[in-house]
């Protein structure tokens, strides 16, 4: 198989014309400044994968040690990216919401840190290369920010936005 296969990384809704689902999707797209519903569907597929893995681990009939090891690695990964809190257990993965996934996007974290006035502006700053994570320029708004990286999100030192007096800077930032 050639590199870059054309397999989609998300599933579309089963029924295309459900008014309640459409309005809920629209409000999430607006709130998180997503480009289109495809980004939302990718996050929903990611959440579905997490839940599936948690169900599989909870339902395994293997020895307790094997399940604890596999479950521990899974929980460590979710805690590292900030989807779960340190004291959360495996069964809490099943109660995660789509907002838990969307809150860990670079676009949302940059907005919550006050680097932009809106989520859409945060997206623009990222795509235009004004935002760095750990000193490295990241141009992907959907980049999943780890908890350890949160404090290192800042404007690129060579960006005009690094100047506190730049007119596009968020008030008080």
Automatic annotation (TrEMBL):
One of its GO terms (cellular component) is small ribosomal subunit. Keywords: Ribonucleoprotein, Ribosomal protein, RNA-binding, rRNA-binding. Pfam families: S4. One of its GO terms (biological process) is translation. Residues 104-166 form the RNA-binding S4 domain. GO terms for molecular function: rRNA binding; structural constituent of ribosome. Gene3D superfamilies: Ribosomal Protein S4 Delta 41, Chain A, domain 1, RNA-binding S4 domain. Residues 1-103 form the Small ribosomal subunit protein uS4 N-terminal domain. InterPro entries: Ribosomal_uS4, Ribosomal_uS4_arc, Ribosomal_uS4_euk/arc, Ribosomal_uS4_N, S4_RNA-bd, S4_RNA-bd_sf. SMART domains: Ribosomal_S4 (SM01390), S4 (SM00363). One of the primary rRNA binding proteins, it binds directly to 16S rRNA where it nucleates assembly of the body of the 30S subunit. Part of the 30S ribosomal subunit. Contacts protein S5. The interaction surface between S4 and S5 is involved in control of translational fidelity. Belongs to the universal ribosomal protein uS4 family. HAMAP family: Ribosomal_uS4_A. This is Small ribosomal subunit protein uS4. It comes from Haloarchaeobius iranensis. The gene is rps4.
């Amino acid at each position: 198989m050639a590199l870059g296969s054309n397999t989609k990384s998300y599933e579309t809704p089963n029924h295309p014309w459900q008014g309640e689902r459409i309005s809920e999707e629209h409000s999430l797209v607006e709130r998180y400044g997503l480009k289109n519903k495809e980004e939302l569907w990718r996050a929903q597929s990611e959440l579905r994968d997490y839940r599936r893995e948690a169900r599989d681990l909870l339902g395994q009939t293997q020895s307790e040690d094997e399940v604890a090891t596999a479950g521990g690695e899974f929980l460590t990964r979710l805690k590292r990216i900030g989807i779960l809190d340190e004291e959360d257990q495996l069964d809490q993965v099943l109660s995660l919401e789509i907002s838990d996934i969307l809150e860990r996007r670079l676009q949302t974290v940059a907005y919550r840190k006050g680097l932009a006035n809106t989520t859409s502006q945060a997206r623009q700053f990222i795509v235009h290369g004004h935002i760095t994570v750990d000193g490295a320029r990241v141009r992907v708004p959907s980049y999943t920010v780890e908890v350890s990286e949160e404090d290192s999100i800042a404007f690129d030192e060579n960006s005009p936005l690094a100047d506190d007096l730049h007119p596009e800077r968020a008030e008080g930032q």
